[in-house]
Amino acid sequence: MSNTPDHTSDDEPENADFETCDFGVEDVAEIAQLFRDAIRVTAAGAYSPEQLAAWAGSADDEDAFAAALNAGWVRVAVDDVGIVGFAQINMPGHIAMLYTAPRVARRGVATLLLDDMLVLGEAMGATKITVDASIVGRPLFAHFGFVEECEELVERHGISFKRYRMQRSMKRPRK
Known about the structure:
Layout: E1 19-22, H1 28-42, H2 49-56, H3 62-69, E2 73-78, E3 83-90, E4 94-100, H4 109-123, E5 128-133, H5 138-143, E6 147-156, E7 159-169
Parallel strand pairs: 4-5
Antiparallel strand pairs: 1-2, 2-3, 3-4, 5-7, 6-7
Helix pairs in contact: 1-2
């Protein structure tokens, strides 16, 4: 985790310095680098160096990474410097990716992106939203009402990883 200071005042939302917009193909290289940085820095305390290298290496082939991004709806979070996070949701409501730049850790970017994913999931007509959360991402999703269904072991480039299948109901309570 980062020790980045929060530069917001008490009456200003944490994520006031950020906004979200749709992903553009011109963003692939910057998003790929953010993906690698987020894994290598943010997840460093939860995974082995071999796991981090295998996971981050998923973005090394930018054409394949672009194809993966284009398989769903991607939103990016930006500030005055550039892209600070991105998230992807696939039909019918599966959050495939949610990553933030280490320089903005714990400043509300993941929350902003997750809010976007929930709105998009609802617009897709999803009755539930699912995610395969990393060890690092699991607390965020739990905070937003996602419930763990099971723990899984998956493999990336021959290396095993622990992740958590989680879901959240999108049904609204009746008034």
